[in-house]
Amino acid sequence: MPKGPSKRQQKLAARQQQARQEQQYEQEPEVDYAAPDPNTKITWPRTMAGQVDAGKLPAVWPNNINKLKTIQKGRRIAKEHACDNPIVQEMSEVCQFLKLTHVIEPYKVIPRDNAAYGGRLRVKILDDEGKPVHEEVTCRMDLMRKMGELIPKLTVRKKRIEQELSRQADYRERVEAYHEKKALKNGKKKGKGNRKK
C-alpha cells in the first residue's frame, strides 16, 4: 500500500507554496490612489447640468452654518440660527425643498479649516431679472439661516447622526477591550520574581 507524503514533506510543500504566493504578490504592480477631482460638479435639477454657470453663483460652505465653528473658521451666522456639523448633502436637501437651483462641489475644501467637512454649494438665489427665486430667501444670509433652521429636522440627518454615534460606540468598545487585554497580559509576568514565598 503506497504511503502519502510525510508531515515534514507536507510542511515543506506548504512553505514553498506560501513563498510562491508572496513572490507573486510582490510582482503585482501597486495601484496608486487617485485623489478625487476637485472640479467635480453635480447640478440640481439634473436637467440643468452644464447650463448653469456656477462661478457666478454665491457659495455656501458647511462651516458657514456650523454652530461649533468660530468666525475665524468660517461661521457667518449667529449660533442661535446655526446647526451642529452640517454636510453638503443636507444643505442640498434644503435647497431642493426650497426648489432652488444649485451646484454641489463635493470635493472642495475650505482653505481656513483643514478639519472641516468637505464640499460646498453654489446656489442660484436670484433669477435672471434680479428677483428672488424663493420669497423667503432674498440673499445668502437668509439662505444660511433657513438651512440652520431646516437641517436639524431632516430624517437623513437623524440617520447619519445615529450611524456616527454607533460607530463611535463600537470604536470605544474596541479600544477598552484592547486596553483590558493589555492589562491582563502585563499582570501575568513570567519569571522567578513573581513567585509567592
Which key features would you list for this structure?
197 residues; alpha+beta; 4 strands; elongated
Tell me what the structure shows.
The chain is α+β, with helices and mostly antiparallel strands. It has a domain at 42-152: 2-Layer Sandwich (Phenylalanyl-tRNA Synthetase, Chain B, domain 1), CATH 3.30.56.30. The chain is 38% helix and 7% strand. The chain has helices at residues 7-27, 88-97, 140-150, 155-187, and strands spanning 42-44, 59-60, 102-105, 120-123. The protein is elongated.
What is the CATH class name of the domain at 42-152?
Alpha Beta
Order of helices and strands: HEEHEEHH
Number of helical regions: 4
Percent strand: 5-15%
**Can you tell me the overall shape?**
elongated
CATH homologous superfamily descriptor of the domain at 42-152: Signal recognition particle, SRP19-like subunit
Structural class: alpha+beta
Oligomer: single chain
Describe the main β-sheet briefly. 4 strands, antiparallel
CATH architecture name of the domain at 42-152: 2-Layer Sandwich
Strand order across the biggest sheet? 1-3-4-2
Low-confidence stretches: none
Rg on CA atoms, Å: 28 Å
Distance from N terminus to C terminus (CA atoms, Å) equals 59 Å
What is the average of the pLDDT values?
85
Share of helix, binned: 25-40%
- Can you count the beta strands? 4
CATH topology of the domain at 42-152: Phenylalanyl-tRNA Synthetase, Chain B, domain 1
